[in-house]
Protein: ABC transporter, permease protein
Organism: Actinomyces urogenitalis DSM 15434
Amino acid sequence: MSKRLQTIVLEAILLVIGITTVFPFIWMVLSAFKPNSEIRALDQSLLPQEWTLDNFLSLQDKFDFIRFFANSLGIALIVTALTIYTSCLCGYVLAKYRFRGRNAIFGFILGTMMIPWAVTIIPRYTMFEAWGLRDNYLALIIPAAMSGFGIFMLRQSMSDIPDAVLEAARIDGASEIYIFHRIVLPMSRNPISALAIFQFLWAWEDYLWPYLMMDSEEKQVLAVGLTTFNGRYGTDYGGLFAATTISVIPVLVVYLIFQKRFIAGAASAAVKG
């Protein structure tokens, strides 16, 4: 098989996979403009036969959509910012400082990534319950403030920063804090962008932990709030599709902001040994 034919076959396979992945999303967005009677009909069509904005206009009447959206957005932004900073700080120390036990600490961090998240739910819940943090936003922020994946990614990337650059800054009288914030962080924009996309997505779509920890409805996040469309005798699919369509917007915005550096950042962390 020639190289050109291999390329065509590979691109065809990727095209099929891409269409298969995107088609449900397109169907959901278009269904948000359909009335529920058309969504439930046996005779389905991709484009709405009767376009309507009622599903979007009535969202706030069905549940406190704006409040849930604001809660999710605020928590996701705070968690993303904290994760990026702590990952950069820990990654820099593990990459550029020489001290006894450095490799053991890094190995321990990698080990935490191998523990299934579900295993830690009960002890984590018991811990936060004992601390009196149930129904408190801190219960959602503290567990995600540090990320083993983020530390791994930033450590791998910062290992490529030349030591000569840092030594030159120290000779010029720069403090370690100045070097970290003014030299290391700007040189790590690619992996920071990649981590920002990953972490924001994880924080935005988190469902189980907020569901367990938040009791007050006004403090609940959007991922949990969307379940209110599932009634006892039926589901408001139109409202559900409309709310889900709007909930995707922040993720798309974050990706569009960081997309230019996303691939480079992920690749730089993957190829470093």
The chain has a mean pLDDT of 87. Residues 63-233 form a domain with the MetI-like fold fold (CATH 1.10.3720.10). Residues 68 and 264 are 34 Å apart (CA to CA).
